[in-house]
Write a structure and sequence with these properties.
Strands 1-2 form a two-stranded antiparallel ribbon. The chain contains 4 helices and 2 strands, in the order αααββα. It is mainly alpha-helical. 75% of the residues lie in helices and 11% in strands. It has a domain of 129 residues: Helix Hairpins (Orthogonal Bundle), CATH 1.10.287.3240. The radius of gyration is 35 Å and the shape is rod-shaped.
Amino acid sequence: MNKNSLAALKTELGEYRDALPVFEMKEQQLKGLVQSIEDGIEELKKDIENTNEQIKSWIAVMAEEGIDLGDMVKVEKVDLEQQEIAGVAVESYIDIHFAKVEPDYYTTPLWLDAAIEHVADQKTRQIMLEIEERKLELLQEELAEARRMKNALKEVFIPETIETIRKIEIYLGDVERLAIGCAKLVKKKKMAKMKGA
């Protein structure tokens, strides 16, 4: 309860007040990004579902013996880009490479090319969906952290620091008044002694 701790608390309060708008801005930025990614994920899920519906009519044909589309459509490599979004390191989809498999066109059915293309498209969408869901998870964690920090500053650190500053100022004011009162009392006693002498 002294002037040094009062000065330190005032500095701290200034830092808290400077940090608050940063976390508020970060929260707004992340909310927008999270919403945008959620919308993109919904679109990917719809595309996957639509393609699944289109493929249903092919299922019986694809069930022919000796044809395994899983073997013909294998992911060889996925190109990703590392980037930082609102302070979070995430990966974004760039491209996908499938292993080259040349079917025997004399023994395979005519529909095979179209089927391979559909399966490759579905695998691409599925991988993109997984990447976006990971990105969303990381950004949601960062959003929750920014929100926690904003709330802690707004509801705990700033009010508690203001209250502590107020108490110290009251205490120091009381101490100062007491010192002035004591000095006056001492002066009065000295004056009384001098008059009595």
